Fold this sequence. Notes:
disordered N terminus, 13 helices, single chain, alpha+beta, seven-stranded mixed β-sheet, six-stranded antiparallel β-sheet
Amino acid sequence: MKRLITILILIFLTLSANAERVRVRLFSNNKIDNLTLSFDLGSYNLYGDHTTLLESEVSEGRTVELRAKGQQVSVVVGGDDYGTFNAVRLEATDTACIVCINPRNLKNRTYEGNIEVSVMKNGALLIINDVEFETYIAGVVQSEIYGSQSDIFRIQAIISRTWALRNKNKHHADGYNFCDYVHCQAYNNRCVRPDIMLGTIQSSGETLVDANGELIETPFHSNSGGQTANSEDVWRTALPYLRSVDDTFSFRMRQSDWTKTISIERWLAYFEKTHHINTSDSVNRDELLHFAQPQRKAKILNIPLTKIRSDWQLKSTFFSVDVDTVSRSVILHGHGYGHGVGLSQEGTIRMVGLGIDYDSILRHYYTGAIIHHDDNVQHNYVENYVQQISKIIEEDKAKQTQVKSKKDDWLGRLFRLRDREEREEVYDEANEDNERTWEYDW
Length: 442
């Protein structure tokens, strides 16, 4: 097969050295003591500590089994025991390599880049993906938002990139940059959708900054319920670009509204016991049973709504309370899903569908923020790949009922395109590699 060159390295050659690669802890919310690795594309070198175990021999058709054994990792390849090591590293021999991670009793995931495995003090495996920064961002976008229009993904890529650059040392003491859970940003798989990659590439070099040119915090949530929250109402710190704004675009979406029914006795007892509120007092009782939020509030009877949301596992703090006298229950009528600060993802989806420009959407949710364009990004590369991915998306729409072959993988087609351009060759379809057909999981 021709030498495969990753699209992401070529587009983002000039990004800062600190951002070129990141280390992401995978399955960070799970305790895993053994897993199996299989390989979908390319070949890998296998290292145990500083010893080369296999060189360019770990590829499609082979499996690597890793198991925690005390404080070391046991390595078995194709049934052959290679011993135990403090750390194991699978290093991609090319920039177009895909590994599938199969933990026991968990859904498998696929990633690009290198994989490092060691054992933590609790006996669980620490799994690290050493990966290109923009490959990571595309995977985050796929994990964090739904939709079908490229500007949706462009917006998510900008705020995810901004957050990552601002917080790249969040887990420095742990030996990696980010985890794959909501503590950082979700990163549940490599990007497998060309429309998501299209939006990510369109956002190349774009971040959000304040008036001083500093990267801002870019929190986001599923749905604001019609009004976003001030940052200090959730996290105490008031930030000038995280102001509450009206957000009618979030109405009538998947997560716009919710209800929860609780018995009056349980509801009042909670405030009595947990917050020491005298619920016999008529004023307190009336506030608790008839609480209303025509506009977002931060507290009820001086109790943070964030605390109530956490204790009752509510979808948001944006709710009002009514009483059902027949069932002796309170009914919480809630709006939105999430903390409510910053960008509403479903509001964004609605705005994009209405044809509102991506930069206007970002300024709507991040008051006074400025979109910074990195002048070092080579925009000729960006435009080239935007055109090529757009073409691939249209071609795939016309071939939805056909079984795809390896050469139909959208990313593989871009790799081959770039490979030909590097060697200044004229493409001739009759001379394509003779690759065996496989079923591609679209």
